[in-house]
Amino acid sequence: MRLRIQHATHYAYDAAPSYLVQRLYLTPVNHEGQRTIAWKVNAPGIDTSLSHRDGFGNIAHLITVRGHSGVLTISAEGEVETSDTAGVVRGIANQIPDVVYLRQTAATTASPDLLKFAARFNRSLPVLELAHAVMRAVHEAVTYEVGSTHAHTTAAEAFKDGRGVCQDHAHIMIALARHLGLPARYVTGYLVTGVGASSAAAHAWAEIMVADLGWVGFDAANGQCPTDHYVRIAAGLDAAAVAPVRGFRRGGSGAEQMTVEVRVEIAQQ
Question: Are 50 and 43 in contact (CB under 8 A)?
């Protein structure tokens, strides 16, 4: 399947900063189930940016911006060809030991409620079967509700409320998986729901290490493993680690307002 993606992030400032540094995770990585046909990142300073593969196998850009005025826009667009691998991700270099993916972060630390929930799972099950059981349980326990949480909501907070968005489903699944001894990581990307459909937001899910298979994706928000309707961008320990755009500014005063526009659709073959 061929998917077309447009993703733009706009920053408006009360007073323009004199200096900005931004790290971008906006470029898809090729693997056995995904091939980039065309892709371009547009941003002030992108022509002189530093680009590298990090230890997680992600493609990162580091841009610096001086003296920018007006709205600052960072965008990415292109086409990606995908195939259904039942969620299995092969062909991405990963220099991080599996044990690192057992480390909880502030976003994934399990609360007493989550630990009680985790007790229902049979740890003696084969890893793939256990991971599917965790995904189904999170899907059933947490209602998908747009606007019910924010970027800094933790797995414990979303689980307690029983509602959240894809970021929260992924964090909750990762919290449970790590507690059960399964290396898990957070994945950012895109999802289109079907032929003739389009998506207006980015997406997120979890990946779990399964012996003899490698990393396997689990989308607890939708209760399924990723298919050819998904485009994978980057992976890390939690959402903050692989935010599409993250950085700092110097100078200027007042508030910063960010808006995001995403469009994902099935391209004509």
Answer: no
Q: Which CATH fold topology does 88-241 show?
A: C8orf32 fold (3.10.620)
Scan for tokens 């699944």, then name that residue. Answer: 173
CA distance 16 to 250: 9
* DSSP secondary structure letter of residue 152: T
Q: In the chain, what are the domain boundaries?
A: 2-80+244-266, 88-241
Predicted TM-score of the model (pTM)? 0.94
Per-residue pLDDT in tens (0 to 9) along the chain, 269 residues: 999 999 999 988 887 788 889 999 999 999 999 999 999 999 999 999 999 999 999 999 999 988 787 888 999 999 999 999 999 999 999 899 999 999 999 999 999 999 999 999 999 999 999 999 999 999 999 999 999 999 999 999 999 999 999 999 999 999 999 999 999 999 999 999 866 666 667 999 999 999 989 999 999 999 999 999 999 999 999 999 999 999 887 776 667 888 999 999 998 76
Q: Note whether 186 and 174 are within 8 A (CB).
A: yes
Task: Provide CATH code, domain 2-80+244-266.
Answer: 2.60.40.2250
